[in-house]
Amino acid sequence: MVNHAADIASNITTHIDKLLGENAADRSIHDCLTDCAEFYADANDQLEDSYASLDSKAFFDIKNWLAAAIADVDSCEGGFKEQDASRSRKSVLASENQNLSKLCHIALEITSLLG
C-alpha cells in the first residue's frame, strides 16, 4: 500500500508540473501549485523512505514518515483554501489531495496495528 501511495504521489507531482504550465497567468493558483510541488517532493521522499523501511520492520519510522506525508498533502490543500477563501473556487488538486491523504491514513492505520 505504501508503494502505491508513493506511485500516486509521483503521478501527482507530474500533474502539478503540467498544471504549473497551464496556470501561469493565474498568479494565486501558480503560487499554490509551486508550494504544492515542494510539499509533494517531500511527500514522495517520505513515502519512498517508508516503503524502503518495510523490510526492516521499522514501524516507528514508517509511522512518522507517513504522518509527515499526510501533513504535506494537507499543507498543499490548505494553501489553496487560504488563497481562495474570498472566492468560492475549488482547489485544482482537491480530488488528488483527498485520495492520497486517505490512502496514507489507511497505510498509517495498518502500520500502527503492526507495531
From TrEMBL:
UniProt entry tagged with the keyword Signal: yes
Annotated keywords: Disulfide bond, Signal
InterPro entries: Invertase/methylesterase_inhib, Pectinesterase_inhib_dom
Pectinesterase inhibitor domain segment(s): 3-110
GO MF annotation, one: enzyme inhibitor activity
SMART domains found in the cross-reference section: PMEI
Pfam families on file: PMEI
Family listed: Belongs to the PMEI family.
Name under which the protein is recorded: Pectinesterase inhibitor domain-containing protein
Species, as recorded: Thalictrum thalictroides
The organism's taxonomic lineage, starting at the top: Eukaryota, Viridiplantae, Streptophyta, Embryophyta, Tracheophyta
